[in-house]
Amino acid sequence: MATTPEHDAKIAKITFSSVYPHYISKIEKKGRTKEELLEVIEWLTGFNENDLNNLIEEKVTFQTFFEEAKLNPHAELIKGVICGYRIEEIETPLTKQVRYLDKLVDELAKGKKMEKILRK
Fold first, then answer.
1. What CATH code is carried by the domain that includes residue 86?
2. Using an 8 Å Cβ cutoff, are 92 and 32 in contact?
């Protein structure tokens, strides 16, 4: 399933600060911790907790968030379906990167072991 230019533009404009609390809520409901979420985000993006707090305070969009990220070279190992899209078939780099993050949060919430989430 291909994304549309409108869909891609909408994702680019979403602020990370508007989504982050939902990530925390989702994983904590399933017994996971904020520290685990931070580990997953740092693995994918290179951002530590201080970096994230600054990005949240600045209300950066996902476009800026991923422009500043140092994407993990193993991110391409993240596969599967998230939000109705097969990640490996998404052609727009930014949309793919956002879905990588969504998939990792989803795997964390589903109780996967950290070494599997971090593709070790």
1. 1.10.8.290
2. no
